[in-house]
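Can't attach files on this board, so I'm pasting raw text. These are the components:
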Amino acid sequence: MLEVRDIVTSYGKIEALRGVDLSVAAGRITCLLGPNGAGKTTLMMTIAGILNPSRGSISFDGTELVGQTPSRIVGHGIALVPENRLVFPDMDVRENLLAGAYLRLARERAEVDRDLDRMFERFPRLRERAEQNAGTLSGGEQQMLAVARALMARPKLLLMDEPSLGLAPLMVEEIFRIIRDLHSDGTSIFLVEQNAHMALQVAHHFFLLEQGHVTFDGTPGELAEDEVIQRAYLGSQANG
Amino acid sequence: MDDHLVGVLSNIGMISFIALSAYLLLIVGEISFGQQAFFAISAYASGIATAMWGWDFWPGLAWGTAVAAAAAVLVGIPTLRIRGLYFSIATLAFAEMVRLVFEVFKYQVEIDGEMVGPDGSDGFRDIRYIFENDITAVEYMLMIYGLLAAVLCAFFLLERSRLGSIFRMIGQDPVLAEMQGIDVTAYKILALGLAGLVAGIGGGLYAHLTTFVEPKIFNVMLGVHSLAYGLIGGLGTAFGPLIGVAIDIGFLESIRAISGYRMIAFGGLVAVLLIFRPRGLLDEAAVNWIRLRLRRRHA
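---
Top answer:
Structure tokens for the assembled complex are below.
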């Protein structure tokens, strides 16, 4: 569904991605693991069109995404739950959710309202806080809101950048439960995670990204979990 | 009504338009130092229409406003693609360019044996429509406030509309807004066009009240002030910038005993407010508080 080929993305002279190849299959949960600074967030931002790669191609169901604006890419059915940049703080929860359905709002208002109800059923905490400013929510609630907002776009592919970052263990469990639910509803998910233990339990396929290269491509179980964890946190140099 | 008071109130009304225009851009997160350019463009264009082409006041004002809005869109197309400070710098450069063009802009025709029209740095005299048509100072003041009320209504409708929430999303986080599928650049250009239009109304009104405009009035201080009005009065509601104007024009500039200290007091006020209330007197929190009180009283 998503094919990333030889992507190079740089910040000035520093190449954060040095020729990344990977593919994400439809109907699967795909996970990207790697140590800090490996380029995981850079890859997500590049797929979403916020960063422009200097080389390579990204195709989504046959459509080339490189060179398109972020808003066009959303229109093709890719929604990103970004890291650290979750919500519009001065807008209430309902407005944040409607923002996610921005492209659909004009044409299918009734559908959007139904989706809004569905989100409130799936995330009851958000219903309780519907009129509250998003900036006043806890970290976990903001993460839920960001996920719910991304789903309001009815994406074919949901990109999630470290959804469990900084959350309490119970909330992490909750987020992974949501990820499983979304998958069983038919959403394809491409997930960046630091929490390798949790990620390996839900993922069907995973990649290891180290220093801007993909260094492993396979299914959970093909690599011993302790080795994955070591490389995901520390990079492979730590082995030697 | 006292002439001085009418003059002060008229000034407050006219400057409110340019303050609202800078405020509109602050909502979408852009800082412009150049709103005086659109004020100036409309002042000249509407003055030319009534004094030289013999148009009526309203079509003349509409023409000036339209030219200002069009100029704003043309400035926005290249400058709003770039993020960060560049837009602010570009607006400043554009406004100075406009002022310098008016310094050399000569376009005169003979009317009743006299040359009428912009004469470079000597300015543009005899924009006499309201005197020739016996509109009194009080009547003109009411026209200014009528238009201001209409523009304020438009702002309140905007704040409740879908377009308004798009503007606020862009102002809070343009990258996140883009990720929702919003074409941020297009909406910023639209916001600048609307801001040009609002400044244009003020400029046209100004030219006809003073009957004389010259390029040096439209210097960068006018732009800096109009930006500061929103920051003083508050960014939570369109009333905010009006409070800023009332404090500056109504109090600091118009009371003779203190007008000599205007710039000192104004600068100090901006500095103090930026420290203690960075989003102005009527910031979002204050507006929410007032709304809550009003709702409770009605309930």
